[in-house]
Design brief:
single chain, mainly alpha, 14 helices, globular
């Protein structure tokens, strides 16, 4: 009963504090990122609902397809809009719901790791008002979805360590992979698992090796994305180096141009 009251209070406090930005259009220092994400969602809704064809608005002479990240969040949000209709308030509300699921995941993770309910409650409350999370909970960017998947992946990993079931390990691996696919830097969440095996629990036998394989097998999907991303960067570098004399750029200038073009939609 107290736990339900705790989460109800967090939801109500955050809802009241974010009521104004929920009703507003896209605002904030990361408006350009929000605009790019929302344009993906709207184009899934209006045009091609194929998850493999995320489109941006500035298309030039092309088709607008830009596969920078796996648009799982944008595609799911567009699916909801197919039911509710196109509305920026719905998109922000869905993002808020993702944030609440993240908070529940933080509570479960802390409780499983520290085995102390009070620590989990304090950590969850503090996390809900951390500046970045507080700002991004109503900002439609894929980081929120990636964080939610990654945290729940760690939750299922800790559950799997106590139950030793391959299905739970597989769920953990899939969630961690979805988080990485949604936003590539979230592959760093695998560092927790590596550290856990090295410093906390280094038991090895045939059964645990099978479970580890279930956990790590889904990482092949993000690794494919990493390889494709590196391949794209290499092609860009080669293209600009072939025009080095024409542009009058040195290699450092070319590197900066490639990095800028890769992180800017």
């Amino acid at each position: 009963m107290r736990l339900k009251l705790f989460f109800c209070s967090i939801i109500m406090v955050n809802l009241v504090l974010h009521l104004k930005p929920l009703k507003q259009d896209l605002v904030g220092m990361h408006t350009w990122r929000q605009t790019y994400t929302v344009s993906n969602i709207v184009n899934f809704y209006d045009e091609d609902f194929n998850i493999l064809n995320p489109k941006k608005n500035d298309r030039g002479n092309g088709d607008g397809i830009q596969r920078m990240e796996f648009p799982i969040m944008q595609w799911l949000f567009a699916g909801v809009l197919k039911i509710t209709g196109k509305n920026i308030f719905i998109i922000k509300l869905l993002n808020f719901a993702v944030g609440i699921l993240t908070l529940v995941g933080v509570f479960r993770f802390l409780k499983l790791f520290f085995k102390n309910r009070n620590v989990a409650l304090i950590g969850c409350w503090a996390f809900s008002f951390s500046p970045s999370f507080y700002y991004f909970i109503v900002s439609p960017i894929p980081d929120n979805f990636a964080m939610m998947c990654s945290i729940w992946g760690l939750v299922y990993f800790l559950i799997a360590r106590s139950k030793e079931t391959q299905r739970t390990y597989l769920c953990a691996g899939i969630l961690l992979s979805l988080g990485t696919l949604a936003k590539l830097p979230f592959i760093l969440y695998y560092a927790f698992i590596l550290g856990y095996f090295v410093w906390i629990d280094n038991r090895y036998n045939f059964s645990t090796i099978k479970n580890y394989l279930c956990l790590t097998s889904p990482i092949m999907l993000p690794l494919i994305q990493v390889l494709e991303y590196m391949k794209l960067l290499t092609l860009k570098v080669r293209l600009l180096r072939s025009r080095e004399s024409e542009l009058g750029w040195s290699f450092p200038h070319i590197s900066c141009a490639v990095i800028h073009s890769s992180i800017t939609p």
